[in-house]
Amino acid sequence: MQKWNFSHQVCSMFSIVSLLGILLSQSSFASSRQTIAQSEQTVPGNNGQFNIFLGATINSFNEVIFTAQLINTSEGEADDTALYRMALPSTVNPAVITLEEVIRENQLLTVSDRSFHISDLYIDISFRITNRPLSDSLAAGDFTNLALMLPLVPNSNELGNSIIAVESENSIVLIAEAGATVESGNGEYREFNIFSLVGIGSNNQVIFFSSLDNTENDAEDNTAYFKRSNDNSIDELVRKGDSVNGGILTHPGGLETNDNGNGVFSGQNDSEDVNNNSGLYKVSGSSYSLVVHEGDIAPTDDTENRYFSALTDARINNHNQIGFKGMLQDENGFAVTNGSGLFLADNLSIKNILQKGQTTPDGTATYGNLLSPFSATPRPAMNDLGQLALIVDLLTEDAQINGVFRASETEVLELARKHLSYEDGSLRNFQDPAINNSGLVVFQADLAIEEVFDDEGSYLRTEDILIITDGVHYETIERGGREHNGKVISEIFFNNNPYGPANGLSDTGTVVYTVRYEDGHRGILAWIPDFGWRTDVTQGVWDDVSHWDFGGLPDQFTDVILNPEQPTDILGPIADTTIKSLSLGGTSGSIDLTLQNSTLSMTGGLVVHSGSSIFGQGSIDSSVQNEGLIEVLENQSLTISGEMINDGQITINEGSQLTFLANFTGVNPIQGNGTVTFNGEIQLTDEPGLLTIQGSLNLTEDSALKIAIAGLERGESYSAIDVGDTVSLGGTLQLTISDNLNLSDGDTVELLQAGQISGEFDNLMVPDLSEQGLQLSVNQSTTKLELVVTQDADPLDTDASSGSGAINIGLFLLLLLPLIRYIVDSKRAE
Asked: Which of 343, 392, 646, 673 has the fewest beta carbons under 10 Å from its own?
């Protein structure tokens, strides 16, 4: 059977697309919503109920962290705040999920064998969760940790009223406490605050900031950044008063880190050269080096040289690319027209990404200020693909507006623009976007619906709206006016923090956010995408990103659910691919997936629903539940390494081989003239049945054929196998007899029949019925394998350990030899 006859061509990532051209058309993307917590819900431990929430954050493990203020607690205001955690389930293989209380106000918390009395956690706490990067090769190590800045009940601790700690392996380890002396001995940590905790990388690397007391040079060296390593040592990364770039560092700040524990910060020095007294510095390990400084030539489109002046809002990804904003000046240090831009630095060069005065991709507007001394916006967010998401001011012929953009060295993509039509309204008042490592962008806006007139005049009716997009497809995550849990949403709160790796958007595309309902109650909700194939593509290649919803190839974090309304053929993947889980079909449509000679790995399992099929060759590294069709095409080979449950159809064509490396369960026919090889347990089914194999069967030395016998009716009271061609025996045959079965001399159980049988089992495990006066033997001919019941003449001569149960004549004669020799010797003596 030939499923594909057209050539494979992989499309590149998105070309520059004008949003005006596609009019923000929505996709038919499948998704689900889950309530994590809501007002008046009883908290874990039953001490109180949730009231309001803050800072809902999710990482690439779909681990959600948030703080909450509580009501109806046992101690009133003394214990009414806490930090909570929940792991969201996989969409294909749902898990039992539990909301967990991590830390509670008024708790006596054990930290590194010491006890600390925890204070208010609603506003005064800060936390960072690790966020494994898109590719494991970018950052190695343990990514299961939670960094904490915890306030303490005033005067409950000898030194100070706050600590920095890290949770790892179900315990909390102390990193630093206010009032303690720093590692170098030069100063003491001042009280920490919500801005002290900078980030957390792999293997418990926690980066934090502190003002210092009692330093050697007082105000000249009284602030520093520190990094805690997995061995609990603390390195001083940078300190006010360090010698840098021809001067003394006076204002280090804005340190941002990646998952490797590296970082970037901006610093000013006291150099007399006013054009060279600030710069960006990259932190690697426990040292730092200059990346770019004031006075460097900036890459621009201008005919004359432009030079950097102010440098700010730096970000660093796991490739150590650094995105930053900069003001521009001429050679004399004067401000210039179009004097601000967005830039990207790597180990080789600095690139201009966006600059004031440049034209938008569609040519309808020019970019406004990208850095203003009077505004903190835009605040770009950055991912491991070198893409930055940000809001940019736009100048058109008629007005000054703004828009949401995703920009990189190779592409600038406009995602949304003020006044642009969307659903039944138009967009305005954008909030900072978030971007993940697949290039998905989430942004919040107001959706203007209509102008309303009343006795006091007119006003514009708007609704909060939260949108996710890849630049081509758009989906409304949430919108004011929708109803959840019997309540109507009035406001949406999304954690769009661009600083650090984790906010309200995960690398899986899952989004967590907080809502306020019209009745004043609040809730934390999760929008979980069912990552799927585009509904308008009925035939295409797996590796083509344009064929997937939201334009990104599935990865190890992705639950892929392919469940179209019409028959769909997919070729691939071409290269070895790892995803979280895969589900084919399930409703009215069907999926035919034709594998290439590669490995498709799924940590969460593969389900082939009825009506859907897998064809081709290569390897499936996953457990498989087959209710549809798995077919190995002619002269091909397919290996399935995980447990296989077959409730569907399997076909192995001429000259082909299907190998099961793990356990196999099922009695549905295996069709075709190819060979099936079992390398694990073969448990035909819980209920007896007849497994028919049209081709050949190979049982390896690691296989184990298990058959339970409850009667003598073949395929009805015991399972059996019929093979149309050859069988090669090996491994273990394990037979069990029901306690309710009464066997008698002459009974026969036909276990296997075939065109030809060769080889033998390496190990026979057959019950011992000698106490019943019976013996069981496994008889093998060239076409049959039978269990035969005979009368046991002498139970002592039953070889139960061999499994045959037959009298071993050789052993019997061997036992008689001494007696024969004695008689012969006696005769000779006479």
From this structure: 673
